[in-house]
Each structure stands twice: as structure tokens, then as C-alpha cells.
Amino acid sequence: MSDRRVAVILFEGFELLDVFGPVELLHVTPGFTIDYYGPQRGPIASSQGGQVVAEHAYDELVDPDIILVPGGYGTRPLAEDAEFLKQLKTIGTAANLVTSVCTGSGLLAAAGLLDSYRATSNKLAFGWASSFGTDVEWVSTARWVHDRDRWTSSGVAAGMDMAAALIADLCGTDVAREATVFTELEVHSDSTWDPFAAIHGLA
Amino acid sequence: MSDRRVAVILFEGFELLDVFGPVELLHVTPGFTIDYYGPQRGPIASSQGGQVVAEHAYDELVDPDIILVPGGYGTRPLAEDAEFLKQLKTIGTAANLVTSVCTGSGLLAAAGLLDSYRATSNKLAFGWASSFGTDVEWVSTARWVHDRDRWTSSGVAAGMDMAAALIADLCGTDVAREATVFTELEVHSDSTWDPFAAIHGLA
Known about the structure:
Chain A is α/β, with parallel strands linked by helices. Helix content of chain A is 34%, strand content 21%.
């Protein structure tokens, strides 16, 4: 059994499924704990209007293990927000693993956390996300990309496939399978499966 | 464009993905609004510990259109809670469409809302859910079951397939496809697809 701590980085306008798809799988995996961080403690409004409570503020996140950065419309102003990007860079640099779903990789790139890494992002917003970063090798056809201590997924639902692959990588395929059977989720285990790239003219 | 109102019935110990899978798809569908109801207004703790804010209390839910009842460990005490079941029956009887994900159908059945209907539930907890109700035709192999104004899905991730089918039923397959392309979700459109029934010895 692993003993891993996942810190979800919430911000106003995050995409709900970007967070709760991966969280569902990670939570049912033995040894994983999940905590929610926001710019301040308290309710944070998602892209969908629903509010999720951040139990902790970003500046309380010391010694991060795994961080999960979602996408959503809230990424647009944050990618231009120097104070946020500085905080994210500090947190991401200290973390053992940095993961993102959807346009969350745009934030990672804008914070400099993907420099010299391979990465992917949402396919509808690929042009936006891939405009950030220095020397990032953006992969336009990928369900997710795992490069050393960075895991980035394609849009929204792709985060669940990435989370299952991450669990398999950390805990073995049997443990990952238990998580997906419990949640009755059929995952794509091939990271190059990506019909949405073609739909959005990227393949 | 439809103009549909979805009321999510939150309770302590609800399963996060049961809610936010369907909500993600319904929210990106033009004309759908989502509101969250709890036993009282304020933060409601999920099965996974994360808290979601109920903006309204159950007794504020008058003239419900579509209700969405999730599963999760919180269903166990509620299925024995006469006051909750009475409230749920009042709300469900007034609603135009009653939907559930996972063990949420156990609550619907316990409230008498599935009497003389066909329905399904989570496959791991099928015995528990199907112990409730009178004259319910429980379908043990089904991703979801649609019977008149009742939609019930299998466990957790199955709620997303049901939501896509519900959107297709209400708005057409093109609209449903737009929702799944936006969220980069590959859905099962065959309601009889259910490998998890066999895994749990039900097929």
C-alpha cells in the first residue's frame, strides 16, 4: 500500500470533472488521501457554478507530494496572473509529482513547470495552452503524456484515464483495475488513443 | 434549445463522481441549469471527504423539473431515515424526471419512487439496493435503465453514459454528441453494455 497525498489546486472557474474524475479513482485507492487547496480557505466556484470547499489555502501547502491542477475557464485569467503563477511554481517545484487535466497544463506551462518536458492539453483549447512555456514539447495527439515527474492529460474526461495510468504506475495494474472496477469505469490504457485530436484538426 | 432545470440532491456521504460526471455533461448542454440542494444550505461532505455547497435546502425545492440522486455510503443510513424518504418521495413525485446514479436507486426504491418501474443500480451493491421497493423490476445487467419518467444507472461512471443518453433523448443525438466531444468523453450508447454485472456474479 502506498501512502500518497494528493493536493487538488482549486481556483475560481475550475472544471468540476477535471477534479472529481481523477479524485474518485485516487480516493478509492488504498493509501491515498486527498486535500483541497484554494487561494483562500472556503467555497470556490467551479466553471459550472457549483462550489467546492477549499479546506486549506495555497500558502498552507508545504511539502507537497502529488498536486492535481484542473482546467476550466478560470485558467484564462490565471495564466496572466503573476502572483498565482509564482505560487504555482513554488508548489509545483516542491512537489514529487505534478499532474494536470485539460487546460491545467496551460497553467503549468505558464508557471514554467513544463519547460523541457513533453506534455499535452485539451484539444479544443490546444492552441491556447500550447502558447505557454519555453521548450515544451507539446504532443497534439495523446490521451495523456507522462514524462518523468509530470503527467498531463487531454480534456476533461481524459483525466480519468490518466489517473488510472498513474495509479497503475505507482501501485501496479491490479490496484488500478480494482479502482476502475469499483467505479464501473472502462478506461483507455493506451496513452496515444485520442480521437478528439482529429475532431479538432490536430491530427 | 431546451430549458431544463436539474436539481442535484446532495446528502452527507454522496459519491462525488455520481454527481459531477452527469453534471459536467448536463451543464455544457445549452438550456440546462444545475442547482444543488441539501438537507440544509451549506457545505455537504461527500463520501470522499470533499465538501460541496448546497445553495438551497430540500424544502426550497418546489416545482422540480429533473432531479438527480447520487449514491455513496451516505445512502445506507438514509434508506432507513423516514423523514428523508418522505421528503424525497414528495420531491420525486412532483418532478418531471427522476434520475439516479449508483446506489441512489436504492434511495428512490426505499422512498417508493420505483414501484412498478424497471430499474438498475451499482453492481457491487446490487443486493442492497434491490432489497428496497415494491414491485420494482430490478435489471441486473444494464448500464442504465430508462422506464418512462425514471432513469437509473449502474455504478459511479455509468452515470455519465446515462446522462449522455438522457441528453440525446431530450435534445437529440447531435446535442449529446456535442457534450461528449466537448468533454472528450467516449460514452457507451448501448444501455445493455455491462461487463461489471458479470464481474460481480450477476450475469
